[in-house]
Design a protein that fits this description.
Strand content: 25-35%
Radius of gyration: 32 Å
Structural class: alpha/beta
Number of helices: 7
Distance between the termini: 31 Å
Length: about 400
């Protein structure tokens, strides 16, 4: 059996070699959560001009330098400078009322807060003629001034290639005047269901049939991971018919990755394995419980992954093999948080396999939910973590430390 870590690397290598990364230009409103496809340089400086950090008076500090500390000097009140307006040059012997964010006028090099002025309120427009204000001496240059480019200078790197675009990153681009941004296109996954024994939820079951949980489970997981999912159902009695139908799907839909669940074990009717083994796809056993049977390869140059048919096996396969590969190669999704937890109760594990159990994690402790069976989807639904029991571990006592991947 192939070790789980080795198969995880094989999946990463498969996607690294065959996954086609495409770039889309998206408006900022549609780029949230996407991955930046190229480095972005600042097209302008932020702030684009020197501006006031607070409401007060724009002054030339040279006119206040000779005033002893604790004394004030009277200056003529110039025309007010509101935010969003061009500032006229500050004339000698004057102080200009200035609002937060307003452009600092030429000739000014500091702002005196309104609280330190006498009077400590602004003059009404009808009272400006002949108005004078007393300001303290000893004001340092640059006081309460946001210098042009003090946040970022034009031409410097704003965001690195591969950055995940969250609210802060999109806000920076908007402040720089960028309206659209190049991002990696979502990985387009053809998610195939097969088999006469599974029927769509909502349909009646005939004897021997079950409802298809895997397609919903994997589609939701893939979309949560940032992928675009195309669902298909192929019913074929022979491997030749299955392969022909799959090739038609690949011709009709632009596909970056094919994922199937079921039909890959060693049984006589495993149509996926029988159809694709001759195409060079490998079907093997991985030392993992659940999720031992796995398929990996390419079909007409498109990477292919075959997961087992039991629902928990399919999800564990996605979490252990595919999700980390997508995260490493495309930046989406973010890796699962991994923490160390104390096991509430003892448990057994097959020594030669990585066992992935479902658990409920709270306050540094984890309780196993349900048994190791790959069909226990109710236990999966009640869990918020995957508990990893490594190869070589036959038994763990209560109180043992285990690695936990948080699902929420």
């Amino acid at each position: 059996m192939r070790p789980a870590a080795e198969h995880r690397e094989a999946v990463r290598a498969l996607l690294s070699t065959n996954l086609q990364q495409r770039v889309q230009l998206r408006p900022l409103a549609e780029a949230a959560g996407r991955i930046l496809a190229q480095e972005m340089a600042a097209p302008r400086s932020l702030p684009p001009f020197a501006n006031s950090q607070m409401d007060g008076y724009a002054v030339n500090t040279a006119e206040l330098a000779a005033v002893p500390e604790g004394n004030t000097v009277e200056l003529k009140v110039a025309a007010p400078i509101p935010a969003g307006a061009a500032a006229p040059e500050l004339q000698p012997g004057t102080a200009a009322p200035i609002m937060t964010g307003a452009m600092l006028p030429a000739g000014a090099d500091a702002v005196v807060p309104i609280e330190r002025a006498e009077p400590d309120t602004f003059f009404a427009p009808q009272d400006l003629a002949g108005a004078r204000v007393a300001l303290p001496g000893g004001i340092p240059q640059g006081q309460f001034v946001r210098a042009a480019g003090s946040d970022i200078s034009a031409g410097t790197r704003a965001l690195a290639k591969g950055t995940r675009l969250g609210p802060a990153q999109l806000g920076l681009l908007a402040a720089l005047g960028v309206a659209a941004v190049p991002v990696l296109a979502p990985v387009r996954v053809a998610l195939l269901s097969t088999g006469d024994e599974v029927v769509e939820p909502g349909q009646d079951l005939a004897p021997g049939q079950i409802h298809d949980a895997n397609t919903t489970l994997l589609a939701a997981s893939l979309r949560e991971a940032g992928a675009e999912v195309v669902r298909s159902r192929i019913l074929a009695d022979s491997p030749e018919d299955f392969l022909a139908a799959l090739r038609r799907e690949l011709r009709q839909e632009r596909t970056d990755l094919v994922v199937t669940s079921g039909g890959i074990s060693k049984g006589a009717y495993e149509v996926v394995r029988l159809a694709l083994a001759a195409e060079g796809v490998s079907f093997l056993s991985v030392a993992m419980q659940p999720g031992g049977p796995q398929g990996i390869g390419t079909v007409d140059g498109v990477p292919f992954l075959g997961f087992p048919g039991n629902p928990v096996s399919a999800l564990v396969s996605f979490e252990v093999f595919l999700r980390p590969a997508l995260s490493a190669l495309t930046g989406l999704p973010l890796p699962r948080p991994a923490v160390t937890a104390v096991l509430d109760a003892g448990t057994d594990s097959p020594e030669g396999k990585l066992q992935v159990r479902r658990g409920l994690f709270r306050d540094g402790r984890v309780s196993l939910v349900g048994g190791p069976g790959s069909h226990l989807i109710h236990a999966l639904a009640e869990s918020n973590a995957l508990v990893l029991i490594p190869e070589g571990t036959g038994h763990l006592e209560a109180g043992a430390e285990v690695t936990v991947w948080l699902l929420e």
